[in-house]
Write a structure and sequence with these properties.
There is one protein chain. This protein is mainly alpha-helical. A three-stranded antiparallel β-sheet has the order 9-10-11. Strand 9 and strand 10 form a beta hairpin. Helix 37 runs antiparallel to helix 39. The longest helix is centred in the middle third of the chain and has 28 residues. It is extended. It starts with a helix and ends in a 55-residue tail after the last helix.
Length: 1252
């Protein structure tokens, strides 16, 4: 809501905070003091005159802007005041006011705030001008001249200035002076200026691209083009749209811009078209639409222009969409011409053009064919449709073969739009597409199926099968069988004639089924299996025939009903389809009959009126009694897991059964139920102790007792029964609920009360019998069986809304049972108990009186108490005094849920008292109780920390979770103050781990490491409540709590890659596995990967070398593996660091001594000693391998005892200088003194040679 002028001025006067606001307040106070001194009234005109006189002191053409802050304050106040100044004054003084404002608008040093305020003044000034003022030629002192300045500012590079100028421009154009013209007098000028700006910006961008050889995507984001397009949108969105005279130029320019590949500019150009079309959708400005459409059609691009043609087609279809809204009949008559114009483009070689053309044709079909043409066609309409159908048939010619996939989409849309009118117009299309579909080599079967499915929906299966017969019984020569039509019919048929199914499909089914019967019990051949499949597919089509059939009253007679009854009895495999079909007959007609729209839409209703639908329901109601009898019998013969469809069908026919028949049926079923219960009791007494335990398969295939089946039927019928039958219904429920010998029957009886609550009559009956229900449910509390607990909770919940305010004794009567229910093993029973607990709390919070004298086990003189949430919590808390730990745990869990649900409504004292009570229970030694308390409170530090030493049941992890959350919320110092001295080690450990995680994160950020994107958090809890109680909030974040796995020492990656440095390893001995329960087990956990254990007796020692630095192997040594050393100090190449190792590795690969491949893949080893000496040895890899193999064989043949003293030749280490030995040799390979020699090439740095 906008403020008035006095309110705005008061806001400026009252305590301004910004410096500019302070200056504005100073100027305002000075003006008001002057007005008071002159004893002038503080009117908008007085303010306006004073501000204009001040404006000249701060801004002028000669002096410029004398004081920026003061000038802004004056212009800002002038902006506030101008819109409240009388219009005659603004008209008469326009030249003088504009002359005063002009320096502020045109000065080069004017800042954005000053310009925005000046634009506001100019906007109010221009809105006030009349037609005579706008007729003046454009000059510096005329409104048109001011409009020109506003247009210049509308493309200003400063965003806020540009936005404010465009808002002012739009407001001025939306308020034209009174005149017979649709457009504002300045609209032509604005449009021409905007077109010039857009043309200049587009040419500049194009020349820039050519000059700098940039891509179009780069120049597309030229800011000048964007600003000019925005200005065009502002002018086009004015009250009466773009001026008619400038439409041609605008369309040409926009289409030229949209031909580029830049998505932003194309979308912006389309948005302008959309704005123009939206502005022309009303009756006032729609006169411009024909001129606009003609202009667009005249700009038709070349047929092969793949850049410009798609946007042109899209704009054209959008234009005729608007035209169809204004003049639907005239647009419909032009539709064949449009189709001929656009269909030509389907022959284009460009895929984009073909897709655009097909989408345009689909859009025209959906928007340009009015419903009156289908419902009440005239002779002229029929001629237009015939021309349209002729064009559609031509699209399937060879000329458009490359576009057949797109043409099929158009055909599908044509059938969907034309509905029943497509016969006989599109019969030729069905024939052509059907023949193509029957061709095995045709590649577009999926698209053809979509066309034929649309034809089945539109024309009906009778017309389609006349054109494309199935040919399954007696195939004719040259005519293929079309069994592939049956699946299409199953999914597409609706709102058709049921008589066609009776006359054609049923005989076909009988013929195929007779062939199966004739085969007998012999092994089924492929043909027999095909016949069975055809029968199943035929009856799978039956539900579609029953979806709002147009001839229901004529086709659904006694004979057909008997046929369906026999199928239900004799063909179990067809029951699903038959039940679904019978259900569809009722539900589709009921949907039409219950429509609330005052005006019927026959096109949407399938030409079935509400009166016809009601007549159809009345016709079906005449068969309802017999149909229900059949369904009841079939239901009793069907296994429980196959009864779902039968129950839904029974529900449908119960809803339309006459009241008298329904009552009679209920009485019959109730009598049978009493007899079945009595019989089952006799059988159970006679066969007591002889029950046989059934296997799971036997139990699955065993029929349930008759009493269970009849009870299911009673529950289904209950919501449709009249009020008179409810007395017998409640007596039946009372009797069965008391039975303890049949848990399943008792469970079904408890389902009766929630079922009644689904209907309005049932809720009224529950409210009337609320007292009796309360007594019944309370009395049966000790007789409930385990399977019935969930449904009993649901029944208890249905009574709560009907409790009178004067007596809420029902709530404390059932409360103990509900509290115990929150600890039920069955999840659904627990959920029902929690829901009932919350529902009773809500009822207590609404107020009332709890009559304690009516509560069982309470003294008769117990005083009544007012109902409230605190009183309810007090009732629940009574369970804390119980002797059983299970009851105490359940009470704490219940209080936890109530605190979570009503935390905002409870008093602070109540919450504190609950917390203190829970604090005491943490001292107990019972884990069940403590586990419930841990879910309740997370602020009980002294007693909470005592359980941090417990290693069972993950207690240690849970306690650590809680402390981390408290530290994150309240800080380490606060938590440490309340923690016992002996347990502050836990706080220190948490702090250290948090600091360590923080340092690792910072180090990772400094190294430029990027963590993997976190996976979407998937909660392991079933509800928000469970997560709040048992979960850890913010546990997945940056400073997340340590997980249970971390606390327990388990490495769980949870589906993510383990971070570097976060791995842990267990160090084990080979002789004995690690005992994780040992107190010293932590000493065997290492954060670095342990080295592989060496064999027993194996020691690491330095290898022997000779004076030349060559390795010498002792053949008599018992050790199999000898570790090399590279120098006298036993160090590896490099300085021992990572960088040194890398340098040594690189040197080994790229130094002059590194081996290189020569001709024929031979390795060359350089023996350079310095200078220009070159001595290379060619070594063939195969020769080396052969030599090594022979050497190993020789070594194995020789002895390996100690004391032989043989030496093996050795190469110098990589990167080491060549040394000459005392023998004066040139290096190379020395032979050992005795024993077998070993030769080979060292393949890895730092490894010895394996003798095995």
């Amino acid at each position: 809501m906008s403020l008035s002028l006095p309110e705005r001025l008061d806001k400026i006067r009252s305590s301004p905070k910004l410096q500019s606001a302070k200056q504005t307040a100073v100027v305002l106070n000075a003006i008001e003091e002057t007005l008071r001194a002159q004893k002038s009234e503080q009117t908008p005109t007085a303010y306006f005159a004073a501000l204009l006189s001040l404006l000249g002191q701060y801004i002028s053409t000669e002096k410029g802007i004398a004081n920026t802050e003061a000038a802004y304050a004056v212009v800002y106040l002038l902006d506030l005041v101008t819109s409240h100044v009388p219009t005659p004054l603004l008209k008469s003084k326009f030249p003088q006011i504009l002359a005063a404002l002009a320096p502020a608008l045109t000065h080069p040093d004017a800042e954005a705030p000053l310009l925005r305020a000046s634009i506001g003044c100019l906007e109010s000034l221009l809105v006030a001008q009349d037609g005579q003022a706008w007729s003046l030629p454009q000059s510096a002192s005329s409104p048109r001249g001011a409009m020109g300045g506003l247009l210049v500012l509308s493309t200003d590079p400063r965003p806020k200035v540009r936005k404010r100028a465009q808002e002012a421009l739009e407001n001025v154009l939306r308020h034209p002076p009174p005149s017979p013209s649709l457009d504002h007098p300045a609209a032509d000028m604005c449009a021409e200026s905007a077109l010039r700006s857009l043309q200049a910006a587009a040419e500049e961008a194009t020349s820039k691209k050519r000059k700098h050889k940039l891509k179009e995507q780069q120049d597309g984001h030229d800011p000048n083009v964007m600003h000019a397009l925005q200005l065009v949108k502002v002018i086009a969105s004015a009250a009466n749209g773009w001026p008619s005279k400038k439409i041609d130029a605008l369309c040409a320019l926009l289409l030229n811009i949209s031909r580029g590949s830049n998505e932003y500019l194309t979308m912006a150009a389309f948005e302008v078209f959309e704005i123009i079309f939206a502005g022309l959708a009303d009756q006032v400005s729609s006169a411009k639409l024909p001129r606009l459409l003609d202009a667009i059609k005249e700009l038709q691009p070349s047929q092969n222009d793949s850049q410009l043609l798609p946007p042109w087609i899209a704009v054209l279809s959008r234009g005729y969409d608007v035209s169809a809204q204004i003049e639907p009949q005239e647009t419909f008559e032009k539709l064949p011409e449009l189709f001929e114009m656009i269909a030509v483009f389907l022959a284009s070689s460009s895929h984009n053009i073909r897709v655009s053309a097909s989408e345009s044709l689909i859009s025209l079909l959906n928007t340009c064919i009015p419903s009156s043409v289908l419902l009440e066609p005239s002779i002229m309409d029929d001629k237009v449709l015939e021309r349209l159908a002729s064009i559609l048939r031509d699209l399937l010619s060879v000329k458009f073969q490359t576009a057949w996939m797109e043409v099929f989409n158009v055909m599908t849309a044509a059938f969907d739009v034309l509905r029943w009118s497509s016969h006989p117009l599109l019969d030729g299309v069905v024939q052509i597409v059907g023949d193509l579909r029957s061709n095995e080599s045709f590649a577009g079967k999926k698209e053809a199926d979509a066309v034929i499915s649309a034809a089945l929906r539109a024309m009906g299966p009778d017309n389609v099968l006349t054109i494309l017969p199935l040919n399954l019984v007696k195939p004719r020569a040259g005519q293929p069988g079309r069994a592939w039509l049956l699946p299409l019919m199953r999914d597409a048929i609706s709102n058709t004639n049921l008589a066609q199914f009776r006359s054609e499909m049923v005989p076909l089914s009988e013929t195929m089924f007779q062939r199966v019967l004739n085969h007998g019990d012999k092994e089924k051949t492929m043909d027999i299996k095909v016949f069975e499949t055809v029968v199943a597919q035929i009856w799978a089509c039956f539900p579609g025939y029953c979806e709002l059939p147009r001839d229901l009253r004529d086709s659904f007679d006694q004979e057909f009903a008997e046929l369906l009854s026999n199928l239900l009895y004799q063909q179990p495999q067809l029951r699903k389809d038959v039940c679904k079909a019978l259900q569809n007959l009722v539900e589709t007609n009921k949907a039409i009959a219950t429509l609330e729209e005052p005006k019927e839409d026959l096109l949407r209703q399938g030409r079935v009126t509400k009166d016809e639908a009601k007549q159809n329901l009345a016709h079906l109601a005449g068969f309802a009694g017999n149909v229900l009898a059949v369904l009841f019998n079939v239901y009793s013969q069907t296994l429980p897991h196959n009864r779902g469809n039968l129950l839904q069908c029974i529900n449908a026919y119960l809803s339309i059964t006459p009241e008298a028949e329904l009552t009679e049926t209920f009485q019959r079923v109730a009598t049978m139920l009493d007899g079945a219960i009595a019989e089952s009791e006799n059988v159970s007494e006679a066969g007591e102790g002889k029950k046989k335990q059934l296997s799971s398969e036997e139990a699955k295939n065993k029929m349930p007792p008759v009493s269970h089946t009849l009870m299911d039927l009673v529950i289904t019928m209950s919501i449709y029964l009249p009020r008179e039958s409810f007395a017998g219904l409640f007596n039946m429920a009372n009797k069965i609920i008391q039975k303890q010998d049949d848990a399943q029957l008792q469970k079904k009886a408890y389902k009766l009360i929630p079922r009644l609550a689904e209907s309005e009559i049932g809720r009224q009956a529950l409210e009337e019998r609320s007292v009796d229900l309360q007594q019944l449910l309370i009395a049966a509390a000790d007789k409930v069986s385990a399977p019935a607990k969930r449904d009993r909770m649901a029944s208890l919940a249905q009574v709560v809304p009907f409790l009178p305010r004067a007596d809420l004794s029902y709530i404390p009567s059932v409360l103990p049972e509900v509290v115990i229910g929150v600890k039920e093993v069955n999840e659904k029973a627990r959920t029902a108990a929690f829901d009932l607990l919350v529902r009773m709390a809500q009822r207590m919070s609404e107020g009332g009186t709890v009559v304690n004298a009516e509560v069982p086990h309470m003294p008769p003189d117990a005083p009544s108490v007012p109902a409230s949430l605190e009183e309810y919590l007090l009732m629940v808390s009574a369970g804390l005094a119980g002797s059983a730990s299970h009851m105490i745990s359940a009470t704490i869990t219940a209080l936890t849920r109530l605190l979570y649900e009503f935390r905002s409504q409870l008093k602070q004292e109540t919450v504190e008292e609950m917390v203190q009570t829970m604090d005491q229970f943490l001292e107990q030694k019972n884990r069940e109780v403590v586990r419930s308390v841990l879910g309740f409170v997370k602020t009980l530090v002294p007693n909470l920390v005592a359980w941090s030493h417990e290693h069972k049941a993950q207690f240690k992890a849970k306690i650590k979770h809680i402390f981390e959350r408290m530290i994150r919320r309240f800080g380490v110092e606060v938590i440490e103050q309340h923690t016992p001295e002996a347990d502050r080690k836990l706080i220190a450990n948490i702090r250290k781990m948090r600091d360590r995680r923080k340092r690792k994160k910072e180090a990772g950020a400094d190294d430029g490491e990027e963590d993997e994107a976190p996976e979407a958090r998937k909660s392991k809890f079933e509800s928000e409540y469970d997560e709040a109680v048992y979960g850890s909030d913010d546990g997945e974040g940056e400073d997340s709590d340590i997980s249970d796995d971390d606390v327990l020492g388990r490495a769980a990656e949870k589906g993510k890659k383990a971070k570097q440095g976060g791995r842990q390893y267990i160090v084990e001995d080979d002789d004995e596995p690690l005992d994780l329960l040992d107190r010293k087990a932590l000493a065997h956990v290492s954060s670095t990967k342990p080295a592989k254990n060496r064999a027993a007796g194996e020691t690491k020692r330095k290898a022997n070398v000779d004076l030349d630095g060559k390795l010498v192997f002792n053949e008599d040594d018992d050790d199999d593996d000898v570790v090399m050393r590279f120098d006298e100090n036993g160090q590896e190449p490099g300085d021992g660091t990572l960088e040194g190792g890398i340098n040594a590795y690189v040197s080994a690969l790229k130094s002059r001594d590194a081996p290189r491949r020569g001709e024929k893949g031979k390795l060359k080893f350089s023996n350079k000693r310095g200078g220009d000496e070159e001595d290379e040895m060619d070594v063939d890899e195969r020769e080396v391998a052969s030599a090594v193999k022979q050497a190993r064989g020789g070594a194995n043949a020789r002895g390996r005892g100690r004391g032989r003293g043989g030496q093996a030749p050795a190469r110098r280490g990589l990167g080491m200088e060549k040394e000459r030995g005392p023998q004066g040799g040139r290096g190379g390979i020395r032979k050992p003194q005795r024993g077998g020699a070993r030769h080979g090439v060292q393949s890895k740095r730092g490894r010895g040679m394996n003798r095995r």
